[in-house]
Amino acid sequence: MELLKEIESIVHNILPSDTQVTKIDMEGPEVAIYTRNPKSFFENENYVAKLAFELKKRVHIRTDKTLLSEQEEAKKKILEIVPEGAEIKEIAFNPVFSEVVIESIKPGLVIGKGGETSKKITLETGWTPSIVRAPTSPSDILTGIRHHLNKNSPERKKILQSVSKKIYRPIEAKSDPWIRLTALGAFQEIGRSCILLETPQTKILLDCGLNVAAAENPYPYLDSLSFPLSDIDAVVISHAHSDHSGFLPYLFRMGYNGPVYCTAPTRDLMTLLQFDYIDVSLKEGKEPLYTEKDVKEMLKYCITREYREVTDIAPDIRMTFHNAAHILGSASIHLHIGAGQHNLVYSSDIKYGFTRLFNNIDLNYPRLETLIIESTYGKREDIQPERYISEQRLVQVVGETIQQGGNVLIPVFAVGRAQEIMLTLEDAYRRGALEGVKIYIDGMTRQASAIHTAYPEYLRKGVQRRILQNDSPFTGSMFNIVKGGTKERDELLKEGGNIILASSGMLTGGASLHYFHKMAEDPKNTLIFVGYQGEGSLGRKLQNNVKEIPITGEQGRTKGLKINLRLENIEAFSGHADYQQLTSYVRNLKPKQRRILVNHGNKVKTVEFAKTLTQKFHIPSQAPHNLDSIRLK
Ligand SMILES: [Zn+2]
Ligand SMILES: [Zn+2]
User: Fold this and answer.
1) Cβ distance 318 to 308 under 8 Å?
2) 18, 81, 509, 532: least buried by Cβ within 10 Å?
3) Whose atoms come closest to the Cα of 531: which ligand?
4) Is residue 464, in this structure, part of any structural domain at all?
């Protein structure tokens, strides 16, 4: 490979011979340098910084195979070197990467001051530590993902090598370097987000979602593609919600075998949601689109990136994730296409306002010509109340219900809304506003919250500090976990005076639907919607004041279920920007874009929002249809 030769010459120019480099490898968009003298790199820390700067790539220094000590012996040494307070949960070896994965509750202690402890491990065992944070409460899904990745590291290394061959393949300069975008889903609608971006040399997919609320047309229009899926260079996933990543394992089932770029929390959360989709489908007697095997295949192809880390993903495209403040690890995607010919920002789902969980959304981009923006709340009257007013309202409604002996059901998206509500309830509880009330967490929320505690660096300072101090706000004593099972659920409903947080968030299935069926006819109970209810979902029907719904009764007979419980919509918990926030986002986004495409909103909202943007900011804006192709350059 041409590039490898070039890299070798740069590396040898920067590194003196006493660094004893034995091998240089490409691993996807990254460079791995093997050395027989790791000490020389510790003593000259500017080597790595210089290499990364010159190569414009992430650089890994790995020890030469000959230095690796025997695994049992290395493990013993590591336990001796690392102080006990680090609470090491697991040590796993990946010989192909010369790497030892150390999972601990306090990773800072494994790293040590100025990296001293971690360096000592390398010098004494030959293995380079890859240090990951253990969740503060156990999560079998996270453990499963980490085991799976470790076990398959030889195959992952091969995958990474073939990915880098594709990224750095030589391409011919074109006299007419066009760029085309095709809407494959979530244009003039919500659900099945998917965008194809093409240049003469490259094909990229942005998101690959599944519309779980829709009975008809739940999949993106991949059947419209005139080329095999294996021709796609890369898939970039903005965040874990099913409408952005739920269709991804199906791509692998149908022959895609390229990289998936996402943040580390997105990788873990989307896996959780995909497994849940399979589970729920099977329980409802439906054939899922893909199996666990397909999800595990997808995992091997995930390449994780942090916010603001620039990465080559194709010969003519560089990609960067930016904080979207919507859910854990959620990102807006910046693409730098060609030699500076065009810069695109795909906002994906964004929040531009206070949340208890996340830092403020990124508003500054190096360059920007085209913006694709969501419009879930893109209509002028879509104004959310102030957050603190909604929090007060939530506590008040709960109080009123509990006082008359009823239960409160809050259907939540297990990822995002659930944690915002938990932080709000925890705060109210601590202030004494919910005395005597029991809060039950049912469904996937516990697992999703545990994944949050493995990535505190993605959370707002206060929450981050609490997790680092092992005082996770998601595991407080006010929260009771429902293990599942109909009996336990029915028991706690009989008690009364309980708040139940259960997924799914739109009452499309799962635990929330079970509770709803049992609670609907009793007017003492309350149902509180705190998130968006998709068209076609039961949640939306209830918001539209349906008074009776058909359900399957005991002997498989259909009967009418009367809706007598109290219904409340409390909106400011939404992970989506409201109308005002969306327009402020466009106003404050830098630099000023030349064109705006509106998506991720229903027909009326996308069209109206595009009109508003054109009038307000004098930037040509439009709301394309699914299957429209637009030439960007
Ligand atoms: Zn979302
Ligand atoms: Zn979405």
Assistant:
1) no
2) 18
3) 1
4) no
Residue 71 CA, ligand 2 centroid: distance in Å: 45
Distance 243 CA to ligand 2 centre (A): 5
Q: From residue 252, how far is each of 26, 28, 255, 300, 382 by CA, in Å?
A: 24, 18, 5, 11, 38
User: What is the residue range of 493's domain?
Assistant: 392-443+482-569
H helices of 15-115, in order, are 38-43, 46-55, 71-81, 107-111
Provide the token pair at 94.
């990946």
Is the CA virtual torsion 39, 43, 44, 48 positive or negative? Answer: positive
Same domain, residue pair 220 and 316:
yes
Q: Using a CB cutoff of 5 Å, list residues around ligand 1, an ion.
A: 241, 349
Q: Are residues 585 and 551 in the same domain?
A: no
In a domain, 471, yes or no: no
pLDDT at 234 over 90: yes
Q: Say whether both 317 and 221 belong to one domain.
A: yes
CA of 193 to the centre of ligand 2 (A): 7
pLDDT at position 1 is 61
Domain of residue 165, CATH code:
3.60.15.10
Specify whether the CB–CB gap between 148 and 120 falls below 8 A.
no
Q: How far is the CA of 278 from the centre of ligand 2 (A)?
A: 20
394 alpha carbon – ligand 1 mean position (Å): 22
Q: Is 76 in the same domain as 53?
A: no
The answer to whether residues 236 and 296 belong to one domain is yes
Tell me the CA–centroid distance for residue 623 and ligand 1, in Å: 19
The string of pLDDT tens digits covering residues 165-181 is: 999 998 888 888 899 99
Q: Name the residues around ion ligand 2, CB cutoff 5 A.
A: 243, 349
